[in-house]
Amino acid sequence: MIVISPNLTLSVSGDYGPxxxxxxxxSVISAVVAESETTDYPASNLLNESTALRWQAGSGATQYVxxxxxxxxxxxxxAIARHNFGTIQATVSVETQEPGGGEPWVEVISxxxxxxxxPIIGRFTPQHAVGVRLKIQxxxxxxxxxxxxxxxxxxxxxxxxxxHTPINYGRSARITNARAESGDFLGRIVLSEALxxxxxxxxxxxxxxxxxxxxxxxxxKEAPFFFAWRPSTYPTEVGFVWMTNEPRPSxxxxxxxxxxxxxxxxxxH
Length: 269
Known about the structure:
The protein is mainly beta.
């Protein structure tokens, strides 16, 4: 799900707006410290892109997970993947600390309880913060999470209207069927489950593609990313995904407008 700070004003005019797709790919986190952790699941795992590695708290008390960021670059989001905050009905909020040494922590995303364990993007007003802090109030149960990104969101130049399957509905499964010699159906066994989807962007201006989108395309060869296709209307439809194709732009019109297609895969939460 994507949660937007009430202090963030999003224009509803022009190409950009509350429903412009957003991509969280650039993370500037340099260090992380948690209120508590277990030996096998330290907080440092949050800086690894693998969803198989995770941080796990050492108790069910309120947890603060503090991320260090440079302070020299604007940041406007904190994203978390492969967590259990929805399952344990934890109240989650986000705080930031501005440069200056000893400055107070300011809440930028008010406390909310995630509807499920799908990826979370907390989006707030761009700022030069030196710290981003995740506050988790788990009501006695043990919270955990696998991946954390913080940085500046990529806001797509064009919105998506039709022809897109939201990532949480793009289910694919490997299934085996059991059948008796008589032909009777005995049942099905799900061997594995995953998510996948695709999206096309058209009429991208040549300068915007080259300056803004191309750095992400280059990075996506290796790095996974957070993706929300229509944040305001469908805030729960967020994925932590990776490219399954090699996106290549092509000229769409004589004026240089460009188009590109993404094919993406993701893990089920």
